[in-house]
Amino acid sequence: MRYSYPRPDFVRNRWMCLNGEWDFYIEDKKMKIQVPFVFQSKMSGIGKEIQSDYMVYQRNFQVPAEWKGEVIRLNFGAVDYECSVYINGNMVGVHKGGSTPFSFAIDQYLTWDNEQITVKVTDPLKDETISRGKQFWDGGSRFIWYTPSSGIWQTVWLEPVDSTRFEFIHFTPNIDNGTVKIVYQLSRGASLPCNVDFHIRLGEEEIFDGTFVCRELRNTLTVDVYRNRALNGSFHFTGLYWTPENPILFDVIASIERDNKVLDSVSTYFGMRKIHVENNRFYLNNKPYYSKLLLDQGYWKDSLIIAPTDESFKEDIEKFKMMGFNGVRKHEKVEDPAFLYWADRLGFLVWESMPSMWSYTTQNAAEFAREWADVIQRDYNHPSIVVWGMLNESWGVPRIYDNKVHQSFANSLYYLAHAMDETRLVISNDGWELTKTDICALHSYQHGAKDDCRQYELFKQCLGDINQMYKIVEKLPYAKGYFYNGEPVILTECGGISVGEDAKGWGYTNSKTKEDFILEYERVIDAIYSSDLICGFCYTQATDVEQEVNGLLTDSHEFKFDYQEIKRINDKNGGNSSSVK
């Protein structure tokens, strides 16, 4: 069950989890459901598809008596897709969008006895304008589409807070100057002035402890991390960088005080790392870095879109690293914050993405952009996130090649991401028909079957010449009016090899045995490593998902192959994941 604090990069000590058994109403039937698992999943206790767009959740709860007099916030990690929330029959708020968190103050509606919460959810599966990613709109699963996930799918919890509290804290590292810029926002209605304290530690070493008089709701300060460390007697700075090989994190406790009383206290962290492009290469901390990624759908056999346990994300990342990968490209899903926490702690690159829509309208374009901005706001602090990728293979913008409206939409998302975040790279339309972009991100599965030597040689040849890449990409690499301008070229989907003659599912190519698969995997990776143009790849995919059986792990997230053999192949370009040919 999911009972750990659901926002691990912004932790308050007092909270109450509302996961567990709820009453669930759908098609005029009352059932029991285990929140936060979607009703289509086995772990929800229901585990069947019901063709209904409307559902209701309800449960009773009691708020700890010692919280009386404080602001009580009701928080949701994510609900797919649109919902209205009631406390004791009173509507407290609504939310639209299936990927992002939201919260409401509910203290004025409490009886301080036996409370009732009701959540009414609408998830119109057949609406092609909704951002739903790979959830199949017609029920079941088929081809590249998966069983849909409706309703509450992340933790629900309560926490008591003061009217003067942190709304967010953003950390922007600058490794060249050795500083971190801290921007923090206080709640509307906060009592000013107040004192704000930031206490920063690296392990047991105190880096900074400062108290500031806060007279505005939004404030900025800059901490010279290296100087403060030097004043404490330590002069070695380069080891402070966050990398997958050495994921150094600075722990932070931020507090608000007034009249000698602590009004709010939050535990968080940041990492000192830098991402940029130079000499047609992806750079991490001012050094070229070769990306060895997995395409990660973030699905589980029995729980679908949510991890079955709090440890599942950690176990996945550990297995991915054991195979020699240094990151994932999250595919058509905004992942649970717990995954990003473990990526930060264990050292693993993440390319964040949004679930796609299928049809374009001006209204859903605005909804998409609003939710995309909420994703960036939520995940700004995670050092593991190095790329924002909004659109995929022209999904939702099918005429982007020569349609100015679709091109403008892609470009608006690109510039929005850069306007909100100056520290990461941004891709407009991953796969092909790129518009404004920081990475030339291309998809190709045209490596040929085992005995197709001619196609393999063409694949290998084209990977070395940007002007020939169109021959092995389904559509033209760039949209009309856009051209390659020296961006790092990364093969952001490739491989997709299934194994087994009677495999119940499909891959882009198939190997008969596990031994054959290793040979095929090596053949594809060797072709990529032979290219002086390509500076990273993303193999399809991390796990089997329903009828897609081209994963390196099973649909139960267990190894399908000898992980040491996969690592041996991945390490061929020098054995160092930061090397570039």
Low-confidence stretches: 575-581
Number of beta-strand segments: 32
Number of helices: 8
What structural class is derived from the secondary structure elements?
alpha/beta
Beta percentage is: 25-35%
Mean pLDDT: 94
Q: Largest sheet, if any?
A: 8 strands, parallel
Helix share, percent: 10-25%
Rg from alpha-carbon coordinates? 24 Å
The span between the termini is 45 Å
The strand order across the widest sheet is: 27-26-25-24-23-32-29-28
Shape: globular
What does this molecule look like?
- With 581 residues, this protein is of the alpha/beta class.
- Helices cover 17% and strands 33% of the residues.
- It contains eight helices and 32 strands.
- The chain has an eight-stranded parallel β-sheet. Strands 3-2-4-10-7-8 form a six-stranded antiparallel β-sheet, with no helix packed on it.
- A hairpin with a 4-residue loop joins strand 13 (166-174) and strand 14.
- Helix 4 packs parallel to helix 5 and helix 7 runs parallel beside helix 8.
- The longest helix has 18 residues, at 362-379.
- The chain is globular.
- The model is unreliable at 575-581 (pLDDT under 50).
Structure in a nutshell:
The chain is α/β, with parallel strands linked by helices and 581 residues long.
SSE layout and pairing:
Layout: E1 16-17, E2 20-26, E3 29-35, E4 54-61, E5 71-76, E6 79-80, E7 82-87, E8 90-96, E9 102-105, E10 115-122, E11 151-152, E12 156-161, E13 166-174, E14 179-186, E15 194-202, E16 205-214, E17 218-224, H1 225-231, E18 250-258, E19 261-270, E20 275-278, E21 281-284, E22 287-288, E23 291-296, H2 312-322, E24 327-330, H3 337-346, E25 349-353, H4 362-379, E26 385-392, H5 404-420, E27 425-430, E28 440-443, H6 453-462, E29 489-495, E30 497-499, E31 509-511, H7 514-529, E32 534-540, H8 563-570
Parallel strand pairs: 23-24, 23-32, 24-25, 25-26, 26-27, 28-29, 29-32, 30-31
Antiparallel strand pairs: 1-12, 2-3, 2-4, 4-10, 5-9, 5-12, 6-11, 7-8, 7-10, 13-14, 14-17, 15-16, 15-18, 18-19, 20-21, 21-22
Helix pairs in contact: 2-3, 4-5, 7-8
